[in-house]
Design goal:
With 481 residues, the chain is an alpha+beta fold. It has 16 helices and 21 strands. Strands 16-12-14-13-19-20-18-21 form an eight-stranded antiparallel sheet. The chain has a five-stranded antiparallel sheet with strand order 5-6-10-8-9. Strand 1 and strand 2 form a beta hairpin.
Length: 481
């Protein structure tokens, strides 16, 4: 296959889905190993395109057949269809994962986009460095994290990963490699950070790692009796000063217990403050054996009753106070259960991550939880976080407020009706959905939630005039005109 003169022959038809396994679709998949292969792919047949633009999807003609639109994909941890491309091309970047350089004096790390956060933790935590921002899984690639402009438990203090990206190299549709940073090709940089892979292929990036002296965090566990109590605790100055904060929330509690949760505030623990038995090797994570979910669970396994019982037990059994917790357990609790998405069965699930501004957060979150409870839906996992200010990324998700993430099993029409009602609540209160989690948002809702869409479209039209980079999500939301 590698010796074929036509790079399009390297694609293999596969069924792909996001992490939610919601609506898999046929995609033409190719896993390159070198940058030259990707550039060859993009420039193949470019002379033909000078005479005629690519026909619309499904139209006849050699351009549509030989040069499909493309989207880059990492480890497939975006929940919906942002890294799938029905009938089009998908570039798997997981083999483009080389480390290029690291300066321990500054913490600056340059690596190819396909390197995973798991690899970076494995390699650099023993050297005294950790990721500046991380989502709830380390099984994401560097390029994917930048494309989604991921945030974590420290957004209220440090913002998104984009704040720590010093520079990146972007391969455009025309085969040009652009050096981008906040000062060089800045508009392309901020369209790419959070741009969901629609400006081009991120080849490599330089990020600033943060120094740590141990592989542990000091975590304070606090219970909140309901949503009002939780928001008061989040707003407390003592909480605001903590670097990391997240809350597990019981989304099925009702009445006076609506929104009850367990808040977990954390800080990196200095090696000198570790218990004596941990000081011998303070940067070593405890060895753990991940437990797999070998098969898809039957559809009836996750139901309102089972989730309600689990939530009630979890809430009451959590002891309050400070604990020493290893970084894996604090940042990546679900990574210890391999293929945990199978818990939702063959039909899959969607994650609904809503963000409300401070002025409407209390009422908006209450309405969201009340609608979820009234629907009979059961979210096995619900996470509440406080967010900081809006970043410079044109399509970056977080602004100051509160974000609630819900896992919703795919129940067909009932799910669609529930999501529409949640969207209505979100729009009424000036909220926003996260592109990396989205599976069902409408184009109209997206345009209303992202006021800088016009700026993004202008940059996209300049660096990708033929709209070569596309995805199922991009077409559903009409991100490119």
């Amino acid at each position: 296959v590698r010796e074929s003169p036509d790079p399009m022959s390297r694609f293999v038809l596969q069924q792909l889905a996001g992490w939610g396994n919601y609506r898999p679709e046929p995609c033409r998949v190719y896993r390159p190993e070198r940058r030259s292969e990707v550039r060859e792919l993009l420039t193949h047949g470019a002379a033909d395109d000078a005479a005629a633009t690519t026909p619309a999807r499904g139209a006849a003609g050699p351009a549509a057949a030989d040069r499909p639109d493309l989207i880059a994909r990492g480890l497939g941890r975006s929940y919906g269809d942002s890294a799938t491309n029905a009938g089009g091309g998908v570039l798997l970047q997981t083999r483009m994962d080389c480390l290029i350089g690291f300066d321990p004096a500054t913490g600056l790390l340059e690596a190819e986009a396909g390197v995973s956060f798991a690899t970076l933790v494995d390699l650099f935590l023993p050297r005294g460095f950790f990721l500046p921002v991380t989502p709830g899984t380390k099984f994401v690639t560097l390029g994917g994290a930048i494309a989604a402009d991921v945030h974590g438990k420290n957004h209220h203090v440090d913002g998104t990963i984009g704040n720590f990206v010093v520079s990146l190299r972007l391969l455009t549709a025309g085969g040009e490699v652009l050096a981008c940073s906040p000062t060089e090709n800045a508009d392309v940089f901020w369209a790419t950070v959070g741009g969901m892979g629609l400006t081009g292929v991120i080849l490599s990036a330089t990020i600033r790692m943060i120094p740590v002296s141990s592989a542990y965090a000091a975590v304070d566990y606090r219970k909140a009796a309901n949503l009002d109590d939780a928001l008061e605790k989040f707003a407390d100055p003592t909480h605001a000063a903590r670097k990391y904060s997240v809350a597990w929330i019981d989304c099925l509690a009702a009445g006076g217990s609506l929104g009850r949760c367990v808040i977990m505030d954390g800080e990196h623990l200095p090696a000198a403050d570790l218990p004596a038995k941990m000081r011998a090797d303070p940067l070593a994570l405890p060895r753990k054996r991940g437990k797999p979910v070998p098969v898809n669970f039957p559809g009836f396994a996750l139901n309102r009753l089972s989730v309600k019982l689990f939530n009630k037990a979890y809430y009451w059994k959590q002891p309050q106070g400070r604990r020493v917790v290893d970084l894996d357990a604090y940042f990546y609790p679900l990574d210890g259960v391999r293929d945990w998405n199978r818990i939702y069965g063959k039909r899959g699930f969607v994650q609904y991550q809503a963000l409300f501004p401070p002025a409407t957060a209390r009422q908006g979150l209450k309405e969201l939880l009340e609608r979820l409870s009234a629907s009979g839906g059961a979210s096995f996992l619900a996470v509440l976080k406080r967010t900081g200010g809006q970043g410079p990324g044109m399509l970056s998700y977080p602004f100051a407020g509160y974000t609630l993430a819900l896992d919703l099993p795919n129940t067909g029409r009932r799910l669609a009706e529930l999501v529409r009602s949640l969207d209505e609540t979100l729009l009424k209160h000036g909220g926003r959905l996260y592109l990396a989690k989205d599976s069902m948002m409408s184009a109209e809702a997206f345009a209303a939630m992202y006021p800088r869409l016009g700026e993004f479209r202008a940059v996209k039209a300049r660096v990708d005039p033929g709209n070569r980079f596309s995805s199922t999500q991009a077409r559903r939301l009409r991100i490119a005109e």
